[in-house]
Amino acid sequence: MGRRTFLKFAGFAGSFLLFFSTKIPQLLGGKWEHGEKNWWKGKTFHQDNVKTDRIEEGIISAKIDGDWKEFKVREFSEDFLKWNFSSRLKKLEEIAKMLEGEGERPGYAGPHSGSVATYGSGRKDSTFTINNAVKGMGFVPVKEKIKEAISLMEETISDKMNEKLSFLKKNYDDFTLFDKTRQVSLELYATPSFETHTFLNLMENPICSIVFLDIPSFELRCIARMIHPDDPDASPYEKDVVRFTNLVHSYFHGKFEKVFITTIYYLIEEFDNTPGEKRGIRTVPPLPVEKTKETKNIKE
């Protein structure tokens, strides 16, 4: 790698880390960065407003605005999956070319950067409970393949960057590897001494809207399950998700000593917000077909 290429990659990686991964200075963690409720038990917490005991049946329960409700967890649309996977592969190819001294650094728009909107529990620094924050989003392997995926990443995490990029590309080429009902991200900054708006809101109301800046543009409406790495009540699968998601983060950004809080976003509804023909039409679940004179004649 030449000096110019190295500087370009370092600039991309550095700015990417600054945007998503840098530590917040301790001086910011004052009295204002806390909510009115205490959700912590020492240095850990358990999110008790989401129940996943029926997730194998495709059912999730959540306490929203004080009331428990059941929701059907659904798969992403084919259009969303095609856009997401193809965009990720394109981004990996752009990074690989940059390592070879060709092209420019990739932009931030696309499936990795999800803008997560939440509401529910105010922080002392605001009169509002609404919040929107960009999170690094990704897929997680299906339950049957997640342990194998973890082992493979642990074996290759010290490989050269171009080899790791090839490994990641193979993952996205395998359409059967990932669970198509959920996304995952890390809640990097939430601690007992610094509570993020997202953390406080999801502890109160575990619902959110995730929007991706791109063309096409998709919106996911989800039930969010936050998992602390040291939560003794987390299921074995949830602990695997925490391990996998943190590994992916370290795989690209470098090793982190801390294991971060992980959020699983279970899809309930999907919308296509692409300007033009779509403009916010619900795509998952499909809208019911209205019985009109034309559709009646077609059936007959």
Q: Structural class, judged by helices and strands?
A: alpha+beta
Number of strands: 10
CATH-assigned fold name: Pnp Oxidase, Chain A
The profile of the biggest β sheet is:
7 strands, antiparallel
CATH superfamily: Electron Transport, Fmn-binding Protein, Chain A
CATH architectural group: Roll
Report the top-level CATH class.
Mainly Beta
Mean pLDDT across all amino acids: 88
The run of helices and strands is HEEEHEEHHEHEEHEEH
Overall number of structural domains: 1
Percent helix: 25-40%
Cα(first) to Cα(last) distance is 67 Å
- Shape category: globular
* Stretches with pLDDT under 50, minimum 5 residues: 1-27, 295-300
User: Strand share of the residues?
Assistant: 15-25%
The number of distinct helices, counting runs of at least 4 residues, comes to 7
Radius of gyration: 20 Å
What topology does this entry show?
Layout: H1 3-20, E1 50-51, E2 59-64, E3 67-72, H2 78-99, E4 113-118, E5 131-136, H3 146-156, H4 161-173, E6 182-187, H5 197-204, E7 207-212, E8 218-227, H6 236-253, E9 261-272, E10 281-284, H7 293-299
Describe the structure.
Strands 4, 5, 6, 7, 8, 9 and 10 form a seven-stranded antiparallel sheet that branches. A three-stranded antiparallel sheet has the order 1-2-3, with no helix packed on it. Strand 7 and strand 8 form a beta hairpin. The protein is globular. It contains seven helices and ten strands. The model is unreliable at 1-27 and 295-300 (pLDDT under 50). Helix 2 (78-99) runs antiparallel to helix 4 and helix 3 (146-156) packs parallel to helix 6 (236-253). With 300 residues, the protein is an alpha+beta fold. The protein has helices spanning 3-20, 78-99, 146-156, 161-173, 197-204, 236-253, 293-299, and strands at 50-51, 59-64, 67-72, 113-118, 131-136, 182-187, 207-212, 218-227, 261-272, 281-284. The protein has a single domain (27-299), classed as Pnp Oxidase, Chain A.
